[in-house]
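Summary for the steering committee. One of the milestones for this cycle was to obtain a three-dimensional model of the protein with 5-O-phosphono-beta-D-ribofuranosylamine bound, which we needed before selecting residues for the alanine scan. The sequence and ligand used are listed below.
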Amino acid sequence: VSTAILISGRGSNMASLVAAAAEPGYPARIDLVVSNRPGAPGLARAEAAGIATATVDHKAFPDRESFERALDARLREASIALVVLAGFMRVLTPWFVARWEGRLVNIHPSLLPAFRGTDTHARALAAGVAEHGCSVHLVTADLDAGPVIAQETVPVLPGDTAETLAARVLEREHVLYPRALATLASHIARNRA
Ligand code: GRF
């Protein structure tokens, strides 16, 4: 299944997906990495792994929807069937979400439905939860509220800061996302056959 990964920054989840997809028999093929930020460190990482990259700079467009039309055109030009958000820091409009319904997935650093939105690790600490983690979910028009397809849990430890907790969660993200993408891509391939 031809897959694109959308990033905005360092791209560590993207790198874990690219590494997993290089394994024989993995059901998703990473054909394109797109950043909305020129010079995002993840772009160089993708290039080093031999993946085609593109930049669609949201600042070059007058509004969200024209940015998304350009992004959508780039994805269609590459015959992409599945879109994976990995640290992509733009909220997508209902137009884009509807166009990719069931084929658009995100990873979020919390145990959804807890802590939608940003600053999840600091908020988890402030709330005093004993467990935290990450979730992979299908993207719907409501931010971080689409159906969860996989989760990993980590303990919150005494002395944790937002940084130590984020690092513990990120390690699990790098395991969870490749697994969840494999499940989704196999499902899409089966429905197509
Ligand atoms: C991850 O924690 C992801 O869950 C969140 O943003 C971070 C992106 O990190 N949405 P990276 O760019 O994949 O390294």
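Key point for the committee: Residues 7, 9-14, 42, 86-87, 107-109, 170, 173 surround 5-O-phosphono-beta-D-ribofuranosylamine (CB under 6 Å).
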